[in-house]
Amino acid sequence: MPLGERYGGDKSESRYCGVEADFDDDVPSLLSYSLRGGFDFIVVSLMDPSYRPSLLNDEARRSHSLPFAGSDLVLSPAQWSCNVVGLISSWIDLDSEDETLRNDSAIALKQEIAWASHLSLQACILPTPKGSSCANYAKCVNQILQSLGGMQLWLRIPLMTEDNTDASDIDYEVSLQLDSWELWNSFRTLCEHHSQLSVALDIMSSLPTPASVGRWFGEPVRAAILSTDSFLTNARGYPCLSKRHQSLITSFFHHSVQIILSGEQFHTAPVVSSGPNKDDLNDGVTHPLKSYLSYIAFLYQKMDPLPEQERFEV
User: Fold this and answer.
1) Cα–Cα distance between 40 and 278 in angstroms, integer?
2) What are the angstrom distances between the C-alpha of 169 and each of 110, 122, 130, 264?
3) What separation in angstroms does the CA of 133 have from each of 87, 254, 287?
4) Domain named PRMT5 TIM barrel: which ranges (predicted)?
5) How many beta carbons lie within 10 A of that of residue 27, not counting itself?
6) Which end is more exposed in the chain, N or C (fewer Cβ atoms within 10 Å of the end residue's Cβ)?
7) pLDDT 10s digits, 257-296
């Protein structure tokens, strides 16, 4: 359910909080579990991560059913549209030096986005470009955008690309020759500033300078993916955020940016039946990221309302 109500009847998209989940063949159970746990939508891979087009022979390509996460009939059209955001496979690398990987990436990217469009998803999150050059990746995405329909594509960009970024993680193998904004600017320029291309910012434990952060508020940021390892631990053992992270999340709320929680549970403090999302406790459901969600809801509800002029401008 939404994070809560605030003074002034705020109805912005930032009221909704999602959760990133691993690939699962049983999407209905995954969605039900997350919704009962208090989240509003799930971000989930649509294709089995082990799938590679080059591993199929010609006969298998003609007869093989692609390893999607279930049939399009397992959820209602409204559920697909309102409660699921597609996560395009992170292994995709259209600018790799490996020709086989490039070809597999191009095929898989088109297949996954076509499937997401068929499901009438509102948005899909594209993987972060892997290196300093993203020309082929952007070219392929731009071609897809020309006939995409109404679905949005959110390019996943790490807010922090300095040396302390975990370069071993495939999702963050971004060249240090480009800062995050330059990476985004290069990609969207190659995509001709298409209106259906936006940003999903990855927020980690370290933040860049305030000037670098502020630059993003002039960009079409649709989601902030907040890693659980960004959270500190308060005196009672519950997760909390640093002052800078709190300020950043609050600013995102004011700009209608939705928060997506991602990662493992690092805090084991018991969940109490308080806050806007306590109904799930009656069902015996305790989502592992419930305490993080409750903290995000707390930040949302304690915000001061924007002045009327600023609300109008936003």
Assistant:
1) 14
2) 24, 27, 11, 15
3) 22, 33, 39
4) 38-302
5) 23
6) C
7) 999 999 998 877 655 544 444 444 445 568 999 999 999 9
Please report the pLDDT score of residue 270 as a whole number. Answer: 59
Count of the separate structural domains present in the chain: 1
Burial class (CB in 10 A: 0-12, 13-18, 19+), 24: middle
Residue 273 near residue 265 (C-beta atoms within 8 A): no
| Domain around 302 | 13-58+65-268+284-313
pLDDT of residue 303: 84
The residues, any chain, with a CB within 8 Å of residue 276's CB and separated by 6 or more, are: 1, 2, 3, 4, 38, 297, 301
Q: What is the CATH number of the domain that holds 100?
A: 3.20.20.150
The amino acid at residue 296 is: I
Residues in the chain where the model's pLDDT stays below 50: 59, 163-177, 273-282
Measured distance CA(117)–CA(123) in Å, rounded: 9
The answer to the question of residue 95 being in a domain is: yes
What the block records as the tokens of 254 is 């004011």
Cβ density class 118-153: b for 16+ within 10 Å, e for less: ebbbbbbbbbbbbeeebebbbebbbebbeebeebbb
Which residues share a beta bridge with 199? Answer: 155, 221
